[in-house]
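User: Please fill in residues for this 372-position structure.
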């Protein structure tokens, strides 16, 4: 009877989690966009506008339509342990590559109820890519794998999380085989569920990424199933990191092998202190966990503000004089992309520009001069 009661309890929690995700996705889902005519080549990176999204009971005012970024969109399909996943690669316009030149690649993982193209529109990361000359990969979660379009970062007990991480890594390798990608200069970032999956990828395959950025996410080892995910999102579970994968063996086994610990790549954590979907407690917990693994110590807390944008509380963790973890808590930011496009779901244009912050962090790891 005790076992039956426990199973019933877990099932009820899982259903409650799915209801919460469904309600959240429904509340923030934009209207269906009209498909663009023709091929993906030359399509605007920003897409079409949608009605304002309420934040703290008020509509976010439009600051004008974002300037479209012309460029090339290349669609593809990657296969891995989780099956097939579609992706779209953004190639900035006017690239004049020198002989043998290869470019950095930034993998951007969308959140629940969102698509890769919608994340591109919200974040305006393609504008940064056009200025800084890097490629942007937008993988797409299949609704058959998750009804709400969430990356299954929490499904670790059944191996689904690790399978998706390996499949996303296969997408990176596939793009690198057909485009001028420098595999030593690959970074990964994400929003919400995509943020947790980004950290999972970096923790499982640390040698494959030069940097990782987590925007409004949860440390991926904090949940092992959908029953745990809601408590983890609310900051009621101890943060943990998953095991690293066996080098050069992305295929999964039923019993993951312990491997020698490799240094984790530098981590940038962005989170709003008014986030009602994923508790800001997850930001500090993940930063401390990552810093501990790298033997880094916290510096003095600073508060930064640019113009009328939301202020940020910044803590940097350094090891041997180098910042390996940066924690940025944005004052007044809800569950949205900080500094994103106006009139978009999952976006707060009043916040610091998360896309610029992410690239500046990545560029420092590459030793590149960030042009802003």
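Assistant: Residues filled in for all 372 positions:
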């Amino acid at each position: 009877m005790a076992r039956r009661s426990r199973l019933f309890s877990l099932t009820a929690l899982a259903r409650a989690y799915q209801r919460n995700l469904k309600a959240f996705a429904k509340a923030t889902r934009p209207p269906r966009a009209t498909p663009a005519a023709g091929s993906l080549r030359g399509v605007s990176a920003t897409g079409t506008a949608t009605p304002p999204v309420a934040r703290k009971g008020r509509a976010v005012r439009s600051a004008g339509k974002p300037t479209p970024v012309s460029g090339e969109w290349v669609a593809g399909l990657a296969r891995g342990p989780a099956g097939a996943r579609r992706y779209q690669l953004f190639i900035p316009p006017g690239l004049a590559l020198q002989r043998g030149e290869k470019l950095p690649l930034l993998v951007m993982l969308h959140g629940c109820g969102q698509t890769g193209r919608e994340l591109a529109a919200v974040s305006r990361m393609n504008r940064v890519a056009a200025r800084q000359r890097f490629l942007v990969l937008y993988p797409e979660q299949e609704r058959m794998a998750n009804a709400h379009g969430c990356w299954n970062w929490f499904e670790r007990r059944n191996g689904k999380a690790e399978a998706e991480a390996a499949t996303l890594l296969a997408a990176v390798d596939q793009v690198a085989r057909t485009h001028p990608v420098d595999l030593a200069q690959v970074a990964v970032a994400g929003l919400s569920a995509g943020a947790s999956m980004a950290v999972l990828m970096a923790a499982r395959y640390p040698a494959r990424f030069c940097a990782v950025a987590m925007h409004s996410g949860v440390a991926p080892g904090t949940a092992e199933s959908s029953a745990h995910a809601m408590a983890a999102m609310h900051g009621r579970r101890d943060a943990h990191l998953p095991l690293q994968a066996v080098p050069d063996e992305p295929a999964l086994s039923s019993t993951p092998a312990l491997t020698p610990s490799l240094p984790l790549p530098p981590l940038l954590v962005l989170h709003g202190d008014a986030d009602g979907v994923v508790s800001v407690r997850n930001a500090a917990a993940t930063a401390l966990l990552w810093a501990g693994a790298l033997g880094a110590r916290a510096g003095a807390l600073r508060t930064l503000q640019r113009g009328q944008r939301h202020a940020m509380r910044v803590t940097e963790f350094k090891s041997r004089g180098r910042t390996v973890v940066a924690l940025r808590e944005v004052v007044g930011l809800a569950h949205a992309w900080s500094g994103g496009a106006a009139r978009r779901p999952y976006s707060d244009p009043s916040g610091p520009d998360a896309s610029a912050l992410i690239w500046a962090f990545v560029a420092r790891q590459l030793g590149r001069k960030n042009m802003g």
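For context: Confidence is low (pLDDT under 50) at residues 1-14, 23-67, 250-260.
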